[in-house]
């Protein structure tokens, strides 16, 4: 933030993108940050160890405070709401609705009532298979058809915010395929870069899903891959740009194949590419996106001029700077 004294709440602050936001704010001289999360039994708490922040609050306690005693937690200048269940394979719909929809509704209402800048994570998963495009300026959000319950839970809040007239006054971030340091705890939801690096170091090869559509060769399915360091710069730009409102695609603006990504990982490790194609699990086949690419014209139009890190350069930074030496964001100085 330009004002290093700003008081900032980051939900999901121990998670992947949330902890990266704390790291970037620290780099800008801001430490007046309250981190909110539910640490549970995984090891995302390790992401917080190198970081500087003023306080920590459990997600359940935050919700109780917002509902019953908001004065106890005080006022914030910015709320960056990254907290959610982000597993695209999660099947407990009640859990997703409570965490991704109801929590966001209540936090947004509180934020608007206290005139606090509210920025929240929507998702590119709301676009479904992309048949209706991936346009963050589309007028008819109802036309979208998410492929999984995670995407639907995010889509439902986008619809609610539009219906309530909130969207022009808040920012919803449709993150595409974000990868980078601090994602270790995400289990099956880790990026291919994280998974493949371990596979390659252990076996000298990587496994990719075969294509089950004739119009795509094996490994030629395409994604818009976005390095987390770029994602957080975009996020903070929108947070501190009062004129920015509504939904924004956050991606690189370029689609790359899985083969291109895997090749960049091998190169970063100094190895020759060795790719094995395996069958996609049957339960994923009907929910699989074959192509994603963010149209980031609206982001650029908001004044974001920073160059986006090229894929090979970003993969090299991640693999050589963090994965191989087993470091997290904030460990760079040690």
SSE blueprint:
Elements: E1 8-11, H1 16-27, E2 33-37, E3 55-58, H2 59-68, E4 78-81, H3 93-113, E5 117-121, H4 149-163, E6 171-175, E7 177-179, H5 192-203, E8 206-209, E9 222-223, E10 225-227, H6 228-239, E11 246-250, E12 256-257, H7 258-268, E13 275-278, H8 282-285, H9 297-301, H10 311-323
Parallel strand pairs: 1-2, 1-4, 2-3, 4-5, 5-6, 6-11, 7-10, 8-13
Antiparallel strand pairs: 9-12
Helix pairs in contact: 1-6, 3-4, 5-7, 7-10
Fold and architecture overview:
34% of the residues lie in helices and 15% in strands. The protein has 334 residues and is α/β, with parallel strands linked by helices. It has a domain at 8-180 and 225-253 and 292-308 and 328-333: Rossmann fold (3-Layer(aba) Sandwich). Helix 1 (16-27) crosses helix 6 (228-239) and helix 5 (192-203) packs across helix 7 (258-268). The protein is globular.
User: Which CATH class of the domain at 8-180 and 225-253 and 292-308 and 328-333 is shown?
Assistant: Alpha Beta
* Largest sheet features: 7 strands, parallel
Estimated structural class:
alpha/beta
H-E order: EHEEHEHEHEEHEEEHEEHEHHH
The dominant shape is: globular
Strand content: 5-15%
- Major sheet: order of its strands? 3-2-1-4-5-6-11
Report the CATH superfamily of the domain at 8-180 and 225-253 and 292-308 and 328-333.
Answer: NAD(P)-binding Rossmann-like Domain
EC number: 5.1.3.20
Organism: Prosthecobacter vanneervenii
Family: Belongs to the NAD(P)-dependent epimerase/dehydratase family. HldD subfamily.
Catalytic activity: ADP-D-glycero-beta-D-manno-heptose = ADP-L-glycero-beta-D-manno-heptose
């Amino acid at each position: 933030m330009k004002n290093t004294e700003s008081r900032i709440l980051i939900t999901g602050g121990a998670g992947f993108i949330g902890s990266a936001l704390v790291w970037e704010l620290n780099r800008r001289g801001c430490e007046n940050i309250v981190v909110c999360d539910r640490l549970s039994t995984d090891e995302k708490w390790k992401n917080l160890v190198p970081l500087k922040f003023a306080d920590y609050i459990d997600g359940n306690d935050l919700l109780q405070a917002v509902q019953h005693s908001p004065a106890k937690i005080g006022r914030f200048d910015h709320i960056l709401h990254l907290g959610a269940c982000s597993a695209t394979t999660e099947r407990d719909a009640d859990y997703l609705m409570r965490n991704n929809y109801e929590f966001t509704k209540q936090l947004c209402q509180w934020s608007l009532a206290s005139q606090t800048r509210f920025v929240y994570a929507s998702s590119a998963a709301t676009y479904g298979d992309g048949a209706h495009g991936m346009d963050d300026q589309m007028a008819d959000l109802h036309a979208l058809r998410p492929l999984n319950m995670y995407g639907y839970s995010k889509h439902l809040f986008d619809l609610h915010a539009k219906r309530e007239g909130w969207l022009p006054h808040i920012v919803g971030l449709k993150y595409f395929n974000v990868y980078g340091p601090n994602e270790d705890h995400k289990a099956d939801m880790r990026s291919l870069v994280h998974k493949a690096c371990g596979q390659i170091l252990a076996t000298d090869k990587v496994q990719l899903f075969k294509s089950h559509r004739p119009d795509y060769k094996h490994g030629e399915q395409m994604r818009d891959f976005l390095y987390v360091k770029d994602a957080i710069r975009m996020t903070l730009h929108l947070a501190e740009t009062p004129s920015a409102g509504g939904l924004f695609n956050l991606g690189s603006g370029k689609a790359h194949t899985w083969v291109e990504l895997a090749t960049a990982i091998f190169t970063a490790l100094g190895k020759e590419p060795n790719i094995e194609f395996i069958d996609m699990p049957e339960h994923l086949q009907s929910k699989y996106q074959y192509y994603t690419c963010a149209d980031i014209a609206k982001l650029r139009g908001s004044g974001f001029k920073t160059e986006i890190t090229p894929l090979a350069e970003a993969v090299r930074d991640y693999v050589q700077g963090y994965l191989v030496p087993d470091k997290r964001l904030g460990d760079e100085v040690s």
